[in-house]
Amino acid sequence: MIKKVADAYTALHASIRVGNLGKPRSKRRVKAESKPIAFRLDAAQPFDDRCLSWNQDAGSVSIWTTAGRMKDVRFAGSPHRLKTCASTARARVICCTATACGS
Questions:
Q1: Which of 4, 41, 93, 99 could make an SS bond with 77 (beta carbons 3.0 to 4.6 A apart)?
Q2: Contact (Cβ atoms closer than 8 angstroms) between residue 53 and residue 62
Q3: What confidence tens digit (pLDDT) does each residue in 45-79 have?
């Protein structure tokens, strides 16, 4: 979550620096600079393999969240995709996300 906030502020400052939000003291730029960045309560949060514990045999994953650990979250996919997901940590995160999105 900290990285998400830091990246959001970096993107905002980069947009201001290159002039995407208008000239200094323009209405749009003043509005962007005057309020903090906020995220929706139901916004998606990125997870990496340090937050996940995989049980490939059971087809479930345990996810560490800010509200605690969610256990036995099911995942599914084609045999080819599941084989790819089992190969590396990065592939598991990508595949799990893609499977959840239905691609």
A1: 99
A2: yes
A3: 666 667 778 787 888 888 887 788 889 888 877 87
Task: Give the span between the Cα atoms of 99 and 93, in whole angstroms.
Answer: 10
Three-point CA angle 44, 11, 9, nearest 5°: 75
Q: Token pair 């201001």 is at which residue?
A: 16
Q: Which amino acid is at 20?
A: N
CA distance 62 to 70: 6
Number of domains the chain is built from: 2
Query: Is position 43 within any domain?
Result: no
